[in-house]
Specification:
The complex is a heterodimer of chains A (239) and B (728). Chain A is 77% helix and 0% strand. Chain A is mainly alpha-helical and 239 residues long. The longest helix of chain A has 49 residues, at 189-237. The chains are: A mainly alpha (239), B mainly alpha (728).
Chain lengths: 239, 728
């Protein structure tokens, strides 16, 4: 326990020093701040590499290769779970050299293609269609929101705000228009006003997001200052 | 004479003709019809002078002549023409220059050579009846009555100023020039030499077309009016011809027997610098012409032949003496000039030395007729190397003239430029200019202390840290929230109703930087889950997620039991989709497994017993700091989760973008827990005082200071805007 306590004590001291070094950016950009940032980047990268090795590469590629033996590797069932992953990894490593980089196009195309398909498919089925349907909510005051319990005019007002905000925001991003005989391509006055309303909704949204980020930052600052206070108290009192 | 001569071509026209039949020039001015109190101004319209009439002439010259004639017994006294007499314009202007009341021409305006003429006339005493032109006779006829009355007085005046001139004449020439500086060098030379000089002046005149070298009879000074047209008015500049370098070269074509040119002693010190410059290019010529004269200023070449001079043949010279507009005073002087060349000693000069009047000097068209092309020095001129002019220097170069860039004589097809093309051309022009424009050197601004940043930072730190330093407990500083958020009850109910036989999947998808916030927000939920005895399986799409999960659950759970880490899920959305479809294949190995699961996988843990799909979990809790991760889980897990509720524990900044998934009629997110107030309310709900309560006072003080800073900034901005508006 005593040895662990020393490690915990050293860890607390180092964490406090790094915290102060990061907060020193308040004065200006300085060596202590950059040192702390580089240390965090290095530690995070090393830790991520270690996690990738222990959680992904070793159990997915190395362990099956050695555990199954040569017979297991040549087995037909290992083709999709062992041979193909190995081939993809090797060809992807060929991207390191410019001479052989073109051979790494296949795994890269596979990654991009599969990833795009997953993202686009999930966006359509999970966001676009459900959110479009949600924006076309019923204006019936008797309806009740299933989770929030809103009903009556409160719900109707919320639905109207949602509807106006959605339409006006989408109208703001409408950049095509019909060219007038004079050659000018201006939006109609109605669309101009709708775009202005959409811009207002966007501004309010970004403002709320900024306020949320500021709130989160205050909480984080409070946690860090409490940590420093507790660390100093521990060093002073020895407890 | 009833005809009217054209002032332009000298053609005879009927008296009533208004335009010349030959050249079309207007004979009668447009204002001729207006009656003038002083009589007609056009001398050509005046009636033909009768005999006895004298042409009008300059007063002082007339007086000179009158004085000269007065000494002759038979000579008729000269008449003084009135100022308003009809006379040619140039003579009228000559009269205007005359100073009223002056006895003669201003001192210095009569050259010495004219004085010599007068002196000779006195010495010889020969009454010369020079033939006068008709117009002069007409003028004299008109002026005769008036002139006769004043003739006596005029003679007296002339005698006075001529006497002064004589006195000056006796002085050295240098003194005279000092007293009367003039552009025209005064000449004092013998009469015969002066005549020769005058003839030389006449000869090189380029405007003389038809040389008529008939000698002028000394007994007649009368000239035909037609011989003194207006166009020959510049002849009054003859004395200035002394300065022209071409004068000495002119006598050659005249082929006249000219008297020996006296040497001229040129008073260089008396000449203005501009005249010196004009004379200097050919100093040898001047010296050559001035050789015979030992003393005195440069001489004016003779304009009138002397008696007995050989008349040049008609075909040889280029000069027409008849065409020369010779003022009658010069002609009269010539007639009165004696043939002897030597001046008579002891005879006083009766004529004052004169120079070119200033008004006449101003009329010299020197600059007007100066050649635009500067003639190079001879040594600098190019020698022609080809063609018939080969070897000649100074020939005009044909090639430079041809190759000289100039505007096309034939207008090219005009480029039709539309307004749009012009605008584009202007834009291109500005772009090119912008490329050429050198950016001004930016001065390195002196590093300014970030005082505002320091003030805000210190204020925030003090506000957040002050409750901690004061060891304020939650609720002692800022009041705890009384009302629970509306989203909290559904979440609480979900945890309360979750099946205890199925584990809860908790996804830690936030970076370590958000540990301070999300740890406090997620702690009451995880504490509630653990307090109900629900088993927990953790997962993360971030490499650092498993460590964060271990730290939080290790702190919340009793003895580190009841949870297991599935580890890091690499691959982003694709991995999430793989996990929700087949959890066991996506995470084959766990993280920080307990000792009993060494060399085994996390799926062999009793916590995950019976779990093979996402819907096998009793609840899926996603703790995330960004909307992207939340949206990925909402999109990918929704089709696979079945009845398993999806709960989002969000950072405050990500809530606005995730809430639409929660408030939809068919919600993809079943519950949301976000922000520290909600966490405090959740702790209050479950009866706990965890990390959310510990940070409540600091959070409240910090937000209050932020509000104050924002308010102060808004006031500052509005005040600045208002002041700028007032300043205009």
């Amino acid at each position: 326990m005593a040895e662990l306590s020393i490690i915990d004590l050293l860890g607390t001291i180092i964490a406090a020093l790094l915290t102060v070094m990061v907060l020193s950016y308040l004065l200006r950009d300085n060596f202590l701040f950059r040192f702390a940032v580089y240390l965090f980047i290095g530690a995070a990268s090393g830790y991520a590499g270690s996690i990738a090795w222990h959680n992904v590469l070793k159990p997915g590629l190395i362990d099956p290769f050695f555990s199954q033996g040569l017979a297991g590797i040549l087995d037909s069932s290992s083709i999709t779970t062992l041979i193909v992953p190995w081939l993809l990894v090797i060809t992807l490593l060929l991207k390191i050299s410019p001479l052989t980089s073109r051979y790494g196009g296949l795994p890269l195309a596979l990654l991009v293609g599969v990833g795009a398909a997953v993202v686009v498919g999930g966006a359509i089925t999970g966001t676009l269609i459900p959110q479009s349907l949600a924006s076309m909510d019923s204006l019936n005051p008797s309806e009740v929101a299933p989770l929030t319990g809103e009903t009556g005019f409160e719900r109707v007002i919320n639905v109207l705000i949602m509807l106006v905000g959605t339409v006006s925001t989408l109208s703001y991003f409408r950049f095509s228009t019909r060219r007038a005989p004079s050659g000018r391509a201006d939006l109609s006055p109605l669309m101009e006003w709708v775009s202005i309303v959409g811009r207002l909704f966007i501004a309010v949204t970004f403002g709320v997001m900024y306020a949320g980020a500021l709130s989160a930052t205050i909480v984080i600052l409070a946690e860090r200052l409490q940590f420093l206070w507790s660390a100093v108290s521990s060093l002073i009192t020895g407890s | 004479m009833s005809d009217v001569r054209c002032p332009m071509c000298s053609a005879s026209n009927p008296e009533d003709a208004e335009v010349c039949a030959s050249c079309g020039a207007r004979l009668k001015p447009l204002v001729a019809d207006l009656p003038s109190p002083e009589g007609p101004t056009d001398w050509e319209e005046k009636p033909e002078p009768t005999e006895g009439e004298e042409p009008e002439e300059e007063d002082w010259l007339r007086r000179v002549r009158a004085q000269a004639e007065s000494e002759l017994p038979d000579e008729e006294a000269p008449e003084e023409a009135p100022e308003d007499a009809e006379a040619p314009d140039w003579l009228g202007r000559l009269r205007e220059v005359e100073i009223p009341g002056e006895e003669g021409p201003p001192e210095g305006e009569v050259p010495d050579w004219l004085t010599a003429f007068a002196e000779e006339a006195v010495v010889e005493g020969e009454p010369t009846e020079a033939p006068e032109p008709d117009w002069l006779e007409r003028v004299r006829d008109q002026e005769a009555p008036e002139a006769e009355e004043d003739i006596g007085e005029a003679e007296q005046e002339e005698e006075d100023w001529l006497a002064r001139l004589k006195v000056e004449e006796e002085q050295p020439p240098e003194e005279v020039f000092e007293e009367v500086p003039s552009l025209e060098p005064d000449v004092d030379w013998p009469t015969d030499e002066a005549e020769a000089k005058l003839e030389e002046l006449l000869e090189p005149e380029p405007e003389i077309e038809e040389p008529e070298l008939a000698p002028i009879p000394p007994e007649s000074l009368e000239l035909e009016p037609a011989e003194v047209p207006e166009g020959e008015f510049p002849e009054a500049e003859m004395p200035l011809e002394v300065e022209e370098p071409e004068i000495p070269l002119a006598p050659e074509p005249m082929d006249l027997e000219l008297p020996k040119i006296p040497k001229i002693e040129r008073p260089e010190a008396e000449l203005p610098p501009e005249i010196e410059e004009e004379v200097e290019p050919r100093p040898s010529e001047i010296e050559e012409a001035a050789e015979p004269i030992e003393e005195g200023p440069p001489q004016v070449p003779a304009l009138i032949f002397e008696e007995g001079d050989e008349v040049p043949s008609e075909d040889a010279p280029d000069i027409d003496l008849d065409a020369i507009e010779l003022p009658d005073w010069l002609a009269e002087l010539k007639q009165t000039a004696p043939p002897e060349k030597e001046p008579v000693e002891g005879v006083p000069l009766d004529i004052a030395p004169a120079t070119l009047p200033s008004w006449l000097e101003a009329m010299r068209p020197i600059d007007t007729f100066r050649s635009v092309v500067e003639i190079e020095a001879e040594e600098e001129q190019i020698v022609e190397s080809a063609g018939p002019l080969a070897g000649l220097r100074g020939a005009l170069m044909a090639e430079p003239v041809v190759a000289m860039p100039r505007a096309a004589s034939v207008s090219a097809a005009r480029l039709e430029v539309t307004e749009r093309q012009y605008a584009q051309a202007e834009l291109l022009h500005r772009m090119v200019e912008e490329e050429d424009r050198e950016l001004p050197e930016v001065r390195a601004e002196r590093a300014r202390l970030p005082l505002v940043r320091w003030v805000i930072g210190v204020l925030l730190i003090l506000a957040v840290a002050l409750p901690t330093f004061l060891s304020l407990q939650s609720g002692e500083g800022f009041p705890l929230p009384i009302l629970r958020p509306r989203d909290l009850d559904p979440l609480f109910d979900l945890v309360e109703t979750a099946s205890i036989d199925q584990p809860v999947l908790v996804v830690f998808d936030y970076p370590p930087g958000y540990y301070g916030e999300l740890d406090a927000v997620a702690s009451p939920l995880l504490e509630h889950i653990l307090s109900r005895g629900l088993r927990v399986a953790t997962l993360s799409t971030q490499p650092t997620g498993p460590a964060l999960a271990e730290g939080l659950l290790n702190r919340l759970s009793e003895n580190g039991q009841g949870y297991i880490h599935l580890g890091y899920l690499s691959g982003g959305p694709t991995a999430v989709q793989l996990f929700v479809a087949s959890p066991r294949e996506a995470t084959p190995k766990g993280f920080n497994l307990p000792e009993e699961l060494e060399r085994q996988t996390s799926w062999q843990s009793p916590i995950l017993e019976g779990v093979s799909r996402l819907s096998d979990f009793s609840m899926v809790v996603v703790i995330t700091a960004g909307p992207e991760s939340a949206r990925t889980w909402a999109e990918q897990a929704y089709p696979w989760k079945g009845d398993t509720p999806l709960v989002m524990v969000l950072s405050t900044g990500a809530e606005p973008l995730v809430r639409p998934y929660y408030e939809a009629l068919e919600p993809q997110v079943d519950a949301i827990l976000t922000s520290l107030p909600a966490a405090v309310a959740y702790e209050q709900l479950i009866g706990s005082r965890g990390g959310a309560h510990a940070r409540w006072n600091g959070f409240g003080a910090g937000m209050f200071s932020v509000e104050l800073i924002l308010f102060a900034g808004a006031i500052y901005g509005v005040a600045g805007w208002f002041l700028s508006m007032r300043r205009g």
